[in-house]
Queue: 2 jobs
Job 1
Amino acid sequence: MKTVYLDNCATAPLHPDVLKAMLPFLRHSFGNPSSAHALGRKAREAVEKARGKVADLIGANSAEIVFTSGGTEANNLAIQGIARASKDRGNHIVTSAIEHHAVLKTCQYLERSGITVTYLPVDQHGIVNPEDVKQALTDRTILVSVMHANNEVGTIEPIPEIGRIAGERGIPFHTDAVQSAGKVPLNVKEMSVDLLSISAHKFHGPKGIGALYIREGISIDPILHGGGQEKDMRSGTENVASIAGLGKACELAKETVAARMNEMRKMRDRLQERISAAIRDLAINGHPVSRLPNCLSVSVPGIMAETIVRDLDARGIAVSAGSACTSHSVEISHVLAAMGLPKETAQGTVRLSLGIMNTPDEIEYAAASFVEAVEKLKTLSEIEGSLGSRKCY
């Protein structure tokens, strides 16, 4: 059976060159970067080399990069760190209703300790209106956090404009760029951001490693305390092998991001064209233009997404129902709800996300299989309906 992996927004397969960069630090170069001997120095050199590559990917200085265990920790460090460092200045955070749970649940946690949070609405495409950000700011606002690209529908937010609005008021601006790093060009200065989160496994690096960009001059308190690693911003012995892998993934992305964008967009558009032409009531979610080049979110009204996912899985095709983080929930996605999708449509939402290892032949197979699966499930639904015992497939 042909196997086609189209769940790259959940996690992307490890690039062979990334694995090669990691292996020395899993074998013989196993030293602690804090050790003064040769093995320790070699490990430290690898960490700092990777730090520079992460900085290069996003247009930052290497001193502004703090390694974390992934996007969730990076988001927590940014949001909780600013809140702890800003107690004397204010207690208000502005974010959006469609953020990843790593942002939303962190904000909800802070609300229990006296922080006030404004959750901004989005339009039908998932776009935050910068004017809404401007109107939400108060003298007590200590942080604005709006994601760069949504993990479920791929919509890219107007980050530079939001950043300028926050900057004019002297308010730190954080963006969760976990889904966009390595897929579209990022430059922290052009984006006008003060803090930016990334995670390696979303762009063919290893799981369990990420980074937070903290602009020089931004005051932030650590959330982990211990030996003082990462300039006392993130204590704990560094995960050298994974850091080396993150650095290599950033290097590969930096070298090939334009080609990656073009190839993934072509395949994504071909996939969209094929299934849209065959399924007349198919809905495409997210902004039609301002969208990640590898992400396709579609809804089939009247068909449960989980049944489509299972049918495709039986054909060797891996996709997600909505986002991987909410796939076990019976409630509709908070992202789709905020975008105003009717419940029946939202329940039939499937995310197909491409990576650099996909091929045009795989896309053709996936498109044909998706159409066949939906046609079969619709037929079953019609039969059940005619028998008077209609089920939701």
Note: The domain at 4-10+257-386 is CATH 3.90.1150.10 (Aspartate Aminotransferase, domain 1).
Job 2
Amino acid sequence: MSATVQLPRADGRIESYALGPPGEFGAFAGPPSARIAYAAAHVVADPAAPADGPAALDWDATLAYRRHLWAHGFRVAEAMDTAQRGAGLDWDATRELIRRAVAEARAVGGGIACGAGTDQLPADAAPTLADVRAAYEEQCAFVEGEGAQVIVMASRALARAARSADDYRELYGELLRQLERPAILHWLGEPFDPALRGYWGATDLDAAADHVVALIEANRNKVDGIKVSLLDAEREIALRRRLPDGVRMYTGDDFNYPQLIRGDAHGFSHALLGIFDAIAPAAAAALAALDAGELERYEALLAPTVPLSRHLFAAPTYNYKTGIVFLAWLNGHQDAFRMVGGMETARSLEHLAEAVVLADRAGLLRDPELAAVRANETFAAAGVT
């Protein structure tokens, strides 16, 4: 069977592209020891469900993908923006996702932390700070009640309701004091969600960093770490060096993760990354190399994944989930290229075509013949012949 894909290109050409063999990443001995590594996992939509109805998931495939990530040594960051929080996955479906994923983690011994936000509030309402706090409290109590660690997600409702940095400090402080376990904070930058502009009470990112450091210092015993997704390596490094002892930096920088995880003489970042969903075999092998002090192998394994990640997370960055799900489809992890809310259409055919090439160059298409069949089906359905 031929592993050749007919790729639609931006200039109108159809390029015949032959896929290469999958990468040789070796066996996986267990979770990395030098770094904590979370993969933010996507969800698999039920392909029979209407795209304009309530979120409906293929639970077997969704949970199987989490087992795939755990088998590669990752912890799972559940119900995050990669799982389409705020982009089609409603709170009812999210509760069930958290419940099932935490139970699955317990059954297989996998690490898990779950996002708690405020997305049960109406998106078109003008919430008060009390509304926001109550929504956060409900979700945090649910996550901890299921037995998982909380990731306090950035809140669009809070961004609308807050009038100053004091509002953030007081609300987060009260929320953190109620938690049973230290939480991971979540700074999602404007490229990922324009509605979060001015988060922490400042549009100037230096001032915002000052505010978040002050918040962490005031609650250091309740903060495990902070996930930073600003796509700005130097800004993340500067913030990392200011964190109190014992508070971890989790990089959410899907552009610069190799250097941030490797670190420098002053420290390093742990990881909580959406791209780890798509590059799990290569990233697991790289982290094992880092554990072994094999820095050249670490760099060699991750280097080919960076062009893929930068492509998937290209502007508009918030549509990165489409490429993540497309690659899961090509690799046989789900039976259809469908997403909650019909978001499979959020990227162009040309964008998906380039994702095929970059995934192939990184050795991340585990069955090239299957990937070719599925990619050709996707493009042919759109009229590419």
Note: The chain has a mean pLDDT of 96.
